[in-house]
Design goal:
The structure is a single chain. The protein is α/β, with parallel strands linked by helices and 218 residues long. It contains 9 helices and 10 strands. The protein has 2 domains: 117 residues, Udp-n-acetylmuramoylalanyl-d-glutamate--2,6- Diaminopimelate Ligase, Chain: A, domain 1 (3-Layer(aba) Sandwich), CATH 3.40.1390; 90 residues, NIF3 (NGG1p interacting factor 3)-like (Udp-n-acetylmuramoylalanyl-d-glutamate--2,6- Diaminopimelate Ligase, Chain: A, domain 1, 3-Layer(aba) Sandwich). The strands form 2 sheets. Strands 1-4-3-2-10 form a 5-stranded mixed β-sheet, with helices on both faces.
C-alpha cells in the first residue's frame, strides 16, 4: 500500500487539521517510494522505537510523540539526529499524531480510559492550546471524575471547579500536586506512557481493520 494512502486515512480519521497543536502532526520523516506492507505504532518517536519498527519489518512508524514541535527542527543534532539517522538508514517513515489522539471520541486515550473507569454522562473538558482534549464523567459510585491523559496535572483546579472529586491523569509535577491538595481534589497519576498507550493500541486495530494492513505495537 502506498504511504500517501495511509497518511490520507490517518489525517481524515483523526481529523488532524482541526487541531492547533504544539506538535507538527502528520508525516515527519519520509521514506523511499516503495509500498508499506506493515505499520508499527509506539507512544514515542524514539531511536529505540524506530529500530524496533525496522526489526519488526515495518516501513512506517506511527507515534503519539513525534520529533517535530512548534517551529520544527532547527538543528539536526543530538536526540533528533539519532532518530532521523536511524529512520533514514532503516528507510522507516515517521508519522506523529498528538492532541488528535488524546481527544478522539472512539480511538482517543481519554475516551478509552473513561470507558475502563466505567464513566457515564461524559462531557468534554480541559483546554490545551485551544483544544478540548479531556473528559468529565460520573463513576459507578455517582462521583464526578475528570480524565486527562499524559501530563494533565495542571487541570486539577479546573476539575475541582467542575465538581470532580478526582482527576485521573498520567503525571503531575510537584507544583501541580500541591495545587491539587490546596483545592481538595484527589490526583490519580497512572503514568504518562501508560495513559497514552490506549489510543496507540486502538489505532493499531483500527488501521488493520480499515486498511487491511498488518500492524504491530513496538
Amino acid at each position: 500500500m502506498k504511504l500517501e494512502k495511509i497518511i490520507g486515512w490517518l489525517d481524515a480519521e483523526l481529523e488532524t487539521a482541526k487541531f492547533s497543536d504544539v506538535s507538527n502532526n502528520g508525516l515527519q520523516i519520509a521514506r523511499s517510494d516503495g509500498d508499506v506492507d506493515k505499520v508499527a505504532l509506539a507512544v514515542d518517536g524514539s531511536r529505540r522505537a524506530v529500530l524496533a519498527a525496522a526489526e519488526a519489518g515495518a516501513q512506517l512508524l506511527v507515534v503519539h510523540h513525534g520529533i517535530s514541535w512548534g517551529g520544527g527542527i532547527k538543528r539536526i543534532a543530538g536526540s533528533e539526529y539519532a532518530v532521523i539517522a536511524a529512520a533514514i538508514k532503516a528507510d522507516v517513515a515517521l508519522y506523529a499524531v498528538h492532541l488528535p489522539l488524546d481527544a478522539h471520541p472512539k480511538l482517543g486515550h481519554n475516551a478509552l480510559l473513561a470507558k475502563e473507569l466505567k464513566l457515564t454522562h461524559l462531557s468534554p473538558a480541559f483546554s490545551y492550546h485551544g483544544n478540548i482534549i479531556g473528559l468529565v464523567g460520573v463513576d459507578p459510585q455517582g462521583r464526578k471524575i475528570g480524565v486527562c491523559s499524559g501530563g494533565g496535572g495542571e487541570f486539577a483546579a479546573e476539575a475541582k471547579a467542575l465538581g470532580c472529586v478526582k482527576l485521573v491523569t498520567g503525571e503531575a509535577d510537584w507544583g501541580e500536586t500541591v495545587a491539587a491538595e490546596n483545592v481538595g481534589i484527589e490526583l490519580d497519576c497512572r503514568g504518562h506512557y501508560e495513559t497514552e498507550l490506549y489510543g496507540i493500541q486502538a489505532l493499531a486495530k483500527a488501521m488493520k481493520r480499515a486498511l487491511k494492513i498488518e500492524t504491530v505495537i513496538v
